[in-house]
Each structure stands twice: as C-alpha cells, then as structure tokens.
Amino acid sequence: MTSPDLPPDVDAFMDFIGQNIELSGDLVWQERDRLKSDMMLVPNRWAPSRVSPEAFRSKCEVVGMTSEDVAEVVDWLRRAQSGRRLRPQHIKDYRWHQDPA
Fold first, then answer.
1. pLDDT attached to residue 4
2. What's the rounded mean pLDDT across residues 28-46?
3. FRET label pair with 72: which of 51, 53, 59, 97, CA 20 to 30 Å apart?
4. Helix or strand or coil: residue 36?
C-alpha cells in the first residue's frame, strides 16, 4: 500500500495504523492517540512541505478509515501544520520509530 505522494516514514506509520484498524475494525482510541502524539512530538514529520492534506487523505482512505475518521484525522493534520496543539487523551509520548528523512 505504498503511497508515492507521502514520505516513507509517514507512509509506513499509516500502514501500521491501517493494520491496527483491520484488527480492531475501527480507528480506536489508541490509534487516535498515537497519531496525535506523533504529530505533536515530531512536527517536522508532518510539515506542509512533506505531507499534503490531499495525499494524507488518500492514504487514510486506503488504510481503511471511515469517511468520518478521515475528515477528523485530516483536520488534525491541518491543525498541527498550523501550529495548534492536539491533545491525546492517554498515550502522550508515542513517537513512530522511523525518523523523518
């Protein structure tokens, strides 16, 4: 499910999220918190020069998110890219293991 429009680290992270969606049947709170936490702790991974909302939206759809979840997650991306804070509820120190290249 590689997306040529996303950097490899973001693409791999979203594939991981998609595997967990497949196992649980939904974008559960753990995956929501992982996304928010990484967006806050590694802002350069999610910078507008690296991740466009359109490419991110497409990847979210490919990994199996519902249209409501896609809209919500893309909104988080836009907020993070504009410098606004996201608040994960439980998992606040999660960083995807691949560093942005």
1. 75
2. 97
3. 97
4. helix
